Amino acid sequence: MKVMFIKPPSILPENWKGIYSITLPLGICYLGSMIKSDHEVVALDALIEGWKKVNEFTTPKGRKAKILGLSFDEIEYRIEKESPDIVGITSLSVDAQSAYRVAEIAKIVNPNTNVVMGGSHATCAPNLVLGNPSIDYVVMGEGEYTIVEFLKALEDKKDMSKVKGIAWKKGNSIVINERRPLIAELDKLPFPDRSIFPVEEYFKVSKYMQGTWQTPKRALSIITSRGCPHNCQFCSVYNVTGKIWRPRSPENVVDEIEMLCDKYNVKRIVFEDDNLTLNRERFFKICSLIKERKLDFDWNTPNGIRADSLDEELIKKMIDAGCYELTLSVESGSQRVLDDVIQKRLNLEKAIEGVKLCKKLGVKKVSCYFVYGNMEETKEEIQKTVNLVRKFRDMEVFCYCFIALPYYNSRLYNMSKEKGYLLAEDGEDLEIGVLNGKALIKTPEFTPEDIYSFQKQLGREEIKASVQIATHNLPNFLRLLALHPKEVIKYGLSLVVK
Which among 328, 334, 463, 311 has a CA at the least distance from the CA of 386? Predict the structure, then answer.
C-alpha cells in the first residue's frame, strides 16, 4: 500500500509577526522507518514546502484566519498526484481545523482513501477527531508498532477491534480500542527516516525562524527518552508518551547523533526530550561519548530541563560536550504552587541555584520557562513569579512567560471543565483560543482580565530585558527589531549608541 503522511499548514495567531519556527516532523520520520520495508512511503510537510506563503482561511464557524504553508489547492494537487491508499495526518490542537480541511480534501480526491490522524491532538481527543466525517481512524499514543499492525489489518481486511492503540468508526459508533503498552525498549526502534522530507529546506529556513530554532547552523532535533513521571497541571504530553520515563542507551543516542553529523553535516543538535537529565549518570555518559568520538556540533534543550537537577560537575560536562544554551523549566516563583497546584515537586531554592550556576559557569545562553494562571493559584502567588522573573532578567537570563492553557485532557482542562471555570467550548472555540494564548479560565481567585494585566506587565519588561541582552548579539537584536520595532527603538537605541 502507498502511505502519504501530511503535516498540514499552520493556522497563524492573531499577533503573528512574520516569524515562525518550522521543525522537521520527527514523529512521522519514526513511522516512516517502521513501514518503509513493506509499504511505499511519501511525506508532505505543507509548512516547510510553503514557508513563504500566507493564505486566507475561513474556519467552519466563519472565523477569518491566515495559514502559513501550501494552499489547500496545492495540497489537493499533491494528493491527486501521489494517489495514496492511506493519508496519515499529524496535528497539534491549534492546527486541528487545518488538519480537518486536509482530511476533507483527501476524501474529495478519493472517497475510498483511508484517512488516519495521529499525534497529540488525536490522542488527547479521539472522540472529537472521529466526529469529523472525513477521518476514519485515530492512532493514539506512540504509533510505531500500532501503525505496523494497523496497516497489516487494513490490508488483510481483519477485525480492527483487535488492533491496540487505535480508535475507529463502526457504523455510526466510535470505538476506542485498548491502548497499546508503552514501548519499553526504545533502542529497538530504527532511527527516524528524515530523508522522506526535504531536509536541506529546514537548514535554509532556520536562519529566519524565531527562538531556539533561529540559527544559521545546520540543526536537527533528536529525542533520547520518552515519558514524564511528573504531574504538571498544564501539560498533556503524558497522553502520548505516558508517565513512565524510558531512556535510550547513551551509545544508541550518540550513534544517531554521529549519523546526523556524517550524513547531513549537522552542526547543532536540538534535544527535544521532556526529561533529558532525569538520570544524571546516563546524560553524563552521553556527554562523555560525544567528546570521545570528537563530534563537532553544539546543542540546546528547548523543551526545558528541571532546574533543580543540575550541579556544577554536570554543567561543566555539558559545556565541554558542546552545550551553548540551557532552557530550564522553573514554572513558578511560589513553592506552594510548584508542590500543590502544578504538582511539579520542583525544589525552588535548588532551581534558583541551578540558574545561577549556569550563569557562573559560562553557559552561553540561559533561558527559563514560567507558567501562570493555573487553577488554585492566587494573584499574590503570580506576583511571586513576576518578582522571580525580574530577578532572573537582572541576571541576563531570558524568561519566557506563558498563560496556563487548557490543552485537551490535561489536568487543567479536566479540572476547569468539571468546575465550570472553562470559558470556551470544545472544538474550534477552544483550539483557536489556545492558539492565540487567550486566558480561557475564570476562577474565584482570578479573572481573565487579571491574567492579561500580568501578561502586559511581563511583556513590557520582557522586551526591555531582551533588548539589553540582545545588544550583545546582533542577529538576536535584529530579530527583536523585526518583532517589536517601536519598543526596541525606545529601549534599545540608547544602548546600541553606547
Answer: 334
Question: At 496, is the pLDDT very low, low, confident or very high (cuts 50, 70, 90)?
Answer: very low
Whose cell is 539589553? That residue is 468
* Predicted local distance difference test score (pLDDT) of residue 457: 86
For residues 303 and 273, the answer to whether their CB atoms sit within 8 Å is yes
The answer to whether residues 172 and 220 belong to one domain is: no
pLDDT tens-digit map of 266-311? 999 999 999 999 999 999 999 999 999 999 999 999 999 998 989 9
Place of cell 502559513: 68
User: pLDDT band for position 493 (50/70/90)?
Assistant: very low
The torsion of the CA quartet 168, 184, 155, 45, rounded to 10 degrees, works out to 80
Residue 181 lies in a domain: no
Q: Are 141 and 168 spatial neighbours (Cβ–Cβ below 8 Å)?
A: no
Its domain, for residue 159, covers 2-176
Judgement on whether residues 410 and 456 belong to the same structural domain of the protein: yes
- Extended strands (E) in 289-380: 298-300, 305-306, 325-331, 365-372
Q: Give tens-digit pLDDT for 439-476.
A: 999 999 999 999 999 999 887 666 555 555 554 455 55
Would you state the cell numbers that stand for residue 418, as one nine-digit string? 468539571
Render pLDDT for 2-16 as a digit per residue (tens, 0 to 9): 999 999 999 999 988
The whole-angstrom separation of Cα 325 and Cα 377 is: 30
Burial of 258 (0-12, 13-18, 19+ CB in 10 A): middle
Count of residues for the chain? 498
Tell me: do 225 and 117 sit in the same domain. Answer: no
Query: What's the pLDDT at 267?
Result: 96
- Whether residue 320 is found in the same domain as residue 398: yes
Give me the pLDDT at residue 16, please. Answer: 86
The DSSP line for 109-148 is: H-TTSEEEEESHHHHH-HHHHHTSTT--EEE-S--HHHHH
